[in-house]
Amino acid sequence: MRNRRDAEAKPAPTVCHLCAQIAGEPAADLIHRLLCPAVYKRAVCLETADFAIIPSIGPLVPGHVLVTPKRHVRSFASLPVWHAGAGEALAAGLAKELGAMYDQPVHMFEHGSARSGNAIACSVEHAHLHVVPTAAQVWPLIQSAGAWRELRADPLSTIVADQEYLLYEHPNGKRFVLLTNENPIASQFMRQAFAWALGTPQLWDWRLYPRSEEILSTLLLVSEIDIGCALIPTQLGVSA
């Protein structure tokens, strides 16, 4: 059942809440609003100079986190190749650690917005790669969505250019990309697929089911991971 704090998870349309969360701005930090700590705590699990690892609101499973650039861009494909590569390497190291921590295979996905235009692919106009530790079989549910192309050695940006896309990485390491400009995909398509595969189809909508307790447990556990990559202090105890 929704409560008052759950209802408050709905974001304002003109504010980038990921930027706010990364920067530590309490007024627009949705996780702070959900958890309501007496002292403001910046909800970032881990970070490098260029990327932050943060809990997903409405986590589909324990350990569901986002790898997001600190720079405000619309997709990983919008980043310079070296920058995107650093983020992918960070995500790969994180996936290995999450797999061991939760004893689960780890999936990754992104719904990237086109480089320009008014359409926002996944309700948040800030690039974020989902990292989801679960044994759920998702590929059979998304395989028929369109003409997926296996992403091998080519950079993501070479394949998608300036277009909107879905990216999915199977726990076996194979990566697939689907261009969605000509075949529009629902904003929360991937979350819906995971929710169905997990047997909890109602939990796909993070606005209705933000799952505050799971956010907190993920924040605390993932913050303990040591993945190297020149991590810098997250300042989890910074006060407002």
Structure notes:
Helix content is 29%, strand content 15%. The chain has 240 residues and is of the alpha+beta class. The chain has one domain: HIT-like (HIT family, subunit A, 2-Layer Sandwich). A hairpin with a 3-residue loop joins β1 and β2.
Give the SSE map:
Blueprint (H helix, E strand, L loop, with lengths): L3 H4 L9 H7 L6 H6 L10 E2 L3 E5 L9 E5 L11 H22 L3 E7 L16 E5 L5 H4 L6 E3 L4 H5 L4 E5 L5 E5 L9 H10 L13 H11 L18
Antiparallel strand pairs: 1-2, 2-3, 3-5, 4-5, 4-7, 6-8, 7-8
Q: Average pLDDT, to the nearest integer?
A: 86
CATH fold naming: HIT family, subunit A
Strand content is 15-25%
Order of helices and strands: HHHEEEHEEHEHEEHH
What's this model, at a glance?
The chain is an alpha+beta fold. It has helices at residues 4-7, 17-23, 30-35, 81-102, 139-142, 156-160, 189-198, 212-222, and strands at residues 46-47, 51-55, 65-69, 106-112, 129-133, 149-151, 165-169, 175-179.
Task: List the main descriptive attributes of the protein structure presented here.
240 residues, alpha+beta, HIT family, subunit A, 8-stranded antiparallel β-sheet, 8 helices, 15% strand, globular, disordered N terminus, disordered C terminus
